[in-house]
DNA sequence: GTTATTTTGTTTGGCTGGCGAACAAATTTA
DNA sequence: TAAATTTGTTCGCCAGCCAAACAAAATAAC
């Protein structure tokens, strides 16, 4: 005969009580972010591209002649953080730092042909990834979700 | 006279084109998460409590007799990751690792009186923080947001 | 009942993704 | 011309996570 162990709650028999966490937007955003990040990383593992790196490539592609500071500001991160990101992508031959004749401090960022090729390929995979993570939402719900998130994110 | 510089896009004069990022749920979730995390950290700086640590305290409080593995599973992280989190909270005297008579491997987790006091105080601050980050959403919209996020997060 | 498997907590080493302070060079403002 | 600002950078730091390996303990198989 075996008495009911306290730790039995961990075996999926007893659901874990989440208390006030269930009501917190922050908790659910964090959880969703972890799942999406994880799926993105798995899907883009062959191309070795993280969500952050993808964002950088998209912004460089969509904005001619941006420097690192502008890019960092657009992504809401520090200049100092951007340095390693740019260096990593540059070392893989996906982007270039180009001199700006009118300002010798600045680096103009541009995709290399290799970077453009990769971005095209990854964009398609990102759309597939998005479809996967939003599979249980209708198109209207997905749009609503984005709108509501924008009200938080400015 | 000064010619229009390419880098002028960074001075807020020209909005940065975000391309396909605007359509991606992952991008907006990430952005919202960063803002919420940041605000949480600032708000809870006096108590030196991160969102992750807060979640651990809430779960310990709401579930008697949980061990570290159960807790890790409930939060979707590895046992090995949980160790340092628990150790940190224990060293601050907020939680205790208690022996379980029926299983000498396991640590039963419990709040100390100090931990309970802190959690009570922090819960109120977390609610205020939530009200702040959802300030531009109605109560109904907040509920909708949580529901939609749950459809992603399982 | 002994052996094999599984579970628990842990250490170690590594990774991603960030911040802030400080700094030199270059540019802009006063 | 002198002072202030901007750009890219390095450095040290932090949060938060994973996987591999391991000993101790408990459980399952035989």
Explain what the structure shows.
The structure is a homodimer of 154-residue chains. Chain A has 154 residues and is mainly alpha-helical. Chain A has a domain of 89 residues: Winged helix-like DNA-binding domain superfamily/Winged helix DNA-binding domain (Arc Repressor Mutant, subunit A). Chain A is 57% helix and 10% strand. Chain A has six helices and two strands, in the order H-H-H-H-E-E-H-H. In chain A, strands 1-2 form a two-stranded antiparallel ribbon. In chain A, helix 1 crosses helix 5. The first copy, chain A, is elongated. At the A-B interface, helix 1, helix 2, helix 3, strand 2 and helix 5 of A face helix 1, helix 2, helix 3, strand 2 and helix 5 of B. The structure holds a DNA duplex (30 and 30 nucleotides).
